Amino acid sequence: MKEIDWANLSFGYMKTDYNVRINFREGAWGELEISSSEQVNLHMAATCLHYGQEAFEGLKAFRGKDGKVRIFRLEENAARLQSTCRGIMMAELPTERFKEAVLKAVKMNERFIPPYESGASLYIRPLLIGTGAQVGVRPSNEYMFLIFVTPVGPYFKGGFAATPYVITRKYDRAAPLGTGIYKIGGNYAASLRASHEAHAAGYSAEFYLDAKEKKYIDECGAANFFGIKDNTYITPLSSSILPSITNKSLMQLAEDMGMKVERRPVAEEELTTFEEAGACGTAAVISPIERIDDPENGHSYVIAKDGKPGPICTKLYNKLRGIQYGDEPDTHGWVTIVE
Ligand SMILES: *Cc1c(COP(=O)(O)O)cnc(C)c1O
What we know:
It comes from Bacteroides oleiciplenus. By secondary structure, this protein is an alpha+beta fold. The protein is about 20% helix and about 30% strand. Strands 1, 2, 3, 4, 5, 6, 7, 8 and 18 form a 9-stranded antiparallel beta sheet that branches. Strands 9, 10, 11, 12, 13, 14, 15, 16 and 17 form a 9-stranded mixed beta sheet that branches. A hairpin with a 2-residue loop joins strand 12 (about 225-230) and strand 13. Pyridoxal-5'-phosphate binds next to helix 5.
């Protein structure tokens, strides 16, 4: 194998040695299968191709200074996938089976787990798709669960930095009683155009307002939003936000640091009051926000006045990364060590 340039990896797909699969047929999940094929053989009438029965997850494995490999909060990802499955009527994979598959996929591709010093990690992508042939609009009775892994580079190549974001008023990602709370491809399809336009205009990602009133901050691209003021961590409460495991973890860490935590609707005007703000998710942990523009409304909310990440974002970021890489004690039992 050619040497991998760990520090210069992007967030892209790189072929690894194996993927793992579990099929659901006749009402039951089968045995875990190990595959070295990158292809999936699908019936052309599979429900995932027509009616969007597709769910996914994203988590990471990290190699520590001690050489041990740690996976962050995988039981939370299992539970979220189950919730998504209930949401779009797919067979739920039990947590134990999810865990078995994640550990297998990581161990089988051990040589792709980046070294500690690189700041890179192994991205784990589980997906679950409806594979049964159906023409009428109905849930499938057959499913495939699959996990592939791929090494990904550090998100911040030039160091932890604050960047600009933009509010989109032209597009909604999800409806208040729709599927925004589930991690499904359909939500991403709904976001591609807004995301493309935001990037083309030089922004890191697009912010969505609540679809009903266009008044409250919902989500930011594929990340949750939080703001910091008066020693308080504030994150929006809404029925169309994907429950981020990173956000959940940051809320706990903020509380551990003696901060107050509030989950409540956050009106757009409140952006003027935050001392710091960030977008959070597995990819970056925290992506600090420099400013949020609302060009269609003629506003620009500058959050990082000096253009740099604030002290609380930096502290939260270092703490969470420290737990993931094993540099900080795992006091909440968030980490699974790969034996
Ligand atoms: C995956 C995802 C997130 C982040 O969730 P994490 O569990 O923190 O990675 C946020 N928003 C959306 C829409 C997502 O799909």
